[in-house]
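Q: Entry one of two.
A:
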Amino acid sequence: MSTYKDARDALEDSLNFVRQDSPEAIKIRAAIAALDDAETAEIKRAFVDASRRLEDATAKLQAIVAGLQPNAASQFLDRVTGVLNDLTPIAQNVDSLLSGEPASALPGMAEVNLPTFPSVMETVVPPVREFARPAPSPTPQLGVHADVDQMIEDILRREGGFVDHPNDRGGPTNFGVTLKTLMAFRGRSLSGEDVRRMSVDEARDIYRSDYFLRPKIDQLPALLQPQIFDMAINHGPGTAIKLLQKVLTEAGHPCSTDGGIGDETTACARAAVSALGNALSNLLVEKRIDLYKAIVDRDASQGVFLRGWLRRANEFRA
């Protein structure tokens, strides 16, 4: 198994193959910093922090390997991929110690928590990857403008890089964007290779246009925007908005459950936020968890993803 030093050496070597001011170089340095922090945390026996930082480093490595194209640096890519394969069980084994489970009990091991990015038309929750386990962002307060750029970066952090897993209903996926979604965005037929080569900037554009502005999530109170935006990407906009409408109705602010945001939904959401505040966010978390469990009840093969799904939902708990 590779050590922290092996991983750090591989990343430092990789800096020779990219421009020092490039996005790749920035990501590589961030991964090195994450590894340094993880090593320090483990030495201090801060197992929780070590697990989170290891998973964060693994996510950054995945994004780097997926984003760079084969060229003169192919040997570097092979080396980093090998280190990545070793780091994955390191993070998972630390996590198993925390949960009291043996590593062998972790479902799928290196294949856990794979993502998908549903198309606008999808109405069910597909598998989703969470390479990192970040500390929850502060919950936006009523009346404070929600920062869409920060929301997008948070979602990218949860989604990770390229994957093509047989149990993933979305098929080839990169930065959480499926082949079907990318074809709809570009308006032509594409292949899995096109998904692998897509840029993170294009993913940001898709998030913003198809999953934030088009469903009118920007018209909701700032308190709700981060969670509903994340739900729109994870479940599909229609399902995310219907879940919100059901929660509003059950909380005493009835509105039509039609999957669209209009004047009625916006007014009900503002009234509910004024009356309930952060408690409304927690009601949404519970509704989302119920949906995840229903998915697994209908299809037991999706159980491998449940742990990651629940962690993602609970990140929005106030």
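Q: Entry two of two.
A:
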Amino acid sequence: MTPEQEKIRANEAQQLLENRMFNEAFTALKADLFEKFQRTNFAQDEERKETWRTLKNLNNLELYLSKIVTTGKLSENNV
């Protein structure tokens, strides 16, 4: 990927991370999943695991987008 492509990609990721609706959706999803997790009892192992995995995947998606932004900014500084 060229530095210019990385900058474009970083800008697009930054726009997503700063988008009010995107953030609202992530916040609502995380809250719903956390509530679901809290409503399960210890014996509901599979449901608890699936909820935990989904929460982790949401966090990983946000982290991935943040890394794209960082990579683009580093690329911009090295040009």
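A: Comment on entry two: The chain has a mean pLDDT of 90. The longest helix spans residues 45-78.
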